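Researcher: Sequence of Leucine-rich repeat-containing N-terminal plant-type domain-containing protein follows. Predict its structure.
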Amino acid sequence: MGVGFYVTAILLAVATAVTACPPSDRAALLAFRAALHEPYLGIFDTWTGTDCCHNWYGVSCDPETRRVADINLRGESEDPIFEKAHRTGFMTGSISPAVCQLDRLSSLTIADWKGISGPIPRCITSLPFLRILDLIGNRITGAIPASIGMLRDLTVLNVADNIITGPIPLSIVNLGRLMHLDLRNNKISGQLPSQLGRLRMLSRALLSGNQITGKIPISIANIYRLSDLDLSRNRISGQIPDIFVRMPVLSTLNLDGNMIAGQIPPSLLKSGVSILNLSRNGLEGMIPDEFGPRSYFTVIDLSYNKLSGPIPHSISVASYIGHLDLAHNQLCGPIPSGAPFDHLDASSFVYNSCLCGKPLKSC
Ligand SMILES: *[C@@H]1O[C@H](CO)[C@@H](O)[C@H](O)[C@H]1NC(C)=O
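Model: Prediction complete. Tokens:
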């Protein structure tokens, strides 16, 4: 046999060793699968054979190292497997800590399976390359791991629509790359970390529908990339800090359904915010007469507060006001005519002390 044979044999051996997924990654995936039960679609039927990088549904590997890099299991998707079954996904069971043995994992998405319960494994915070953790739409309980701040590469943290309790871990402020934080609709309690402003890369902070107490931290003003802040339907108290005018790209500010008191900061009406919902709080005093040509609101909802005095004249100077809701306050006086008032109906003005004029009764 010539040299050529040996060379070919060695190349073949090397190629096989490089393409198959490591047995330890395969074993971790099988242990992860064993803790889940997916009765309708059979997605785990594809998890067979020795090469977990090849055709295992929702699993992908780094092409060079052949280590498992992504687990992407979505219960609501347009994948043919769902269309064939004519249904969305449903899965029970829990997320096995075995997933933490996949120490090259960069994204872990287990979304919208509706029935997965149990906690987020605490060991998840030891995955050094994790960038995306998306567990939206399950029945996950327990707290966000206290050491979440160890995930220095994390850009997306989405655990919305679960049953998560406990506080927002203080360590979260160490997630210097975090861009998208979605904790909506859980049972998270405690206060917002006062150092939240250290999340310099954050562009969306969605925390509505929890049991968060305390004040809005003024450090938020430092998050100059923040475009969407949703703190609605919590138990936030204190006043609206006068910081939002300093935030260059903030366009949506939802603080509705809290226990916020005091007055509306005048500068807020001249800021870049275009969707503003302050409904259902304890705001009082007058609506500041500070609208200007820069004021552009697709939505401004101030309903269900204790605002008094007249509707400010400057509102007609605003460049645009789409939906305006002032109902259920203590406002008084004539409703101005002209834009934006000509396209609003009575429901925007009802239940006030003595507003009058079109579209209400004449004065
Ligand atoms: C503002 O928030 C209230 C209370 O959460 C909600 O009912 C209302 O629909 C919101 N307004 C708009 C215009 O979305």
